[in-house]
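User: Just a sanity check before I run the rest of the batch. Below are the structure tokens for the first item. I only need the designed sequence back.
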């Protein structure tokens, strides 16, 4: 089993840049990947998504990539048109206000778009720095999800054992249920007809009530669902959706057993099974 909850953080520092990668995920019905990185690194976003989706089947995954540059080649150019427009506007303002000072060069350089700074970045060079650290983070992230998944699987199997144990106890009460039904029918006939009892009529009524109240079929189907449940856990690394469906079927059979039985011991075991099943369903919300 693999949990949909995981976390990983990795960082490294070099002469030219410092890099950190953080990955965290929570449960979600489908796979949803959110990548947060500097805008100028957007060309590598698809590669990041591809690596995350290769190891995740479901969950909401957030990836944060932070880059701090130290020695980046910079190209600086001056926008003469913008500078001239700012200069003329300031000069005209000074004239209208009766001021003699002229706009200074330092003031002009502070104006937006007068200085155009362009950093010479090579996305492929940055990707060569990011990829190995990303793989490290993904490895830790997947290990965390697997570790959490093992704990969850242990809890699920423990609750499954409770259901199986209760079902075994209920199965032992089936002869008691059938015997009680037969005795109740015979008692009612005796109260109504006295000694004039038709054996065939009793048998017919007994068969009719047994068909309505016996839980043998429900027990058989429930055993089958529990077997399939364990099979999915053992053979499917991402069984979340199938197990969720099986929980619905298991719940249906447990409810039917509870509604049919008038034996207090069976009703008590039904409550135990419902509690265990609810715990399983709660755990499955975080399983791929």
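Assistant: Here's the designed sequence for the first item:
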């Amino acid at each position: 089993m693999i949990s949909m909850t995981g976390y990983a953080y990795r960082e490294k520092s070099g002469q030219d840049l410092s890099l950190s990668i953080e990955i965290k995920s929570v449960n979600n019905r489908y796979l949803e990947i959110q990548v947060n990185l500097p805008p100028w690194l957007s060309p590598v976003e698809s590669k990041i998504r591809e690596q995350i989706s290769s190891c995740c089947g479901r969950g909401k995954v957030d990836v944060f990539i932070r880059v701090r540059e130290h020695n980046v080649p910079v190209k600086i150019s001056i926008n003469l048109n913008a500078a001239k427009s700012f200069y003329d506007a300031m000069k005209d303002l000074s004239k209208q206000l009766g001021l003699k000072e002229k706009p200074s060069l330092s003031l002009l350089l502070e104006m937006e778009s007068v200085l155009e700074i362009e950093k010479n970045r090579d996305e492929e060079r940055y990707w060569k720095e990011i990829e190995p650290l990303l793989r490290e983070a993904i490895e830790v992230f997947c290990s965390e999800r697997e570790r959490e998944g093992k704990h969850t699987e242990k809890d699920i199997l423990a609750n499954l054992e409770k259901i199986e144990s209760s079902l075994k106890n209920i199965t032992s009460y089936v002869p008691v249920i059938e015997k009680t039904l037969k005795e109740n029918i015979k008692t009612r006939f005796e109260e109504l007809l006295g000694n004039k009892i038709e054996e065939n009529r009793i048998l017919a009524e007994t068969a009719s009530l047994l068909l309505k109240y016996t839980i043998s079929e429900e027990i058989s189907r429930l055993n089958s669902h529990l077997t399939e449940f364990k099979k999915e856990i053992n053979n499917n690394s991402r069984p979340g959706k199938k197990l969720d469906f099986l929980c619905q079927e298991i719940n249906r059979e447990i409810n039917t057993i509870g509604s049919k039985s008038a034996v207090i011991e069976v009703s008590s075991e039904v409550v135990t099974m419902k509690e265990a099943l609810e715990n399983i369903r709660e755990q499955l919300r975080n399983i791929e």
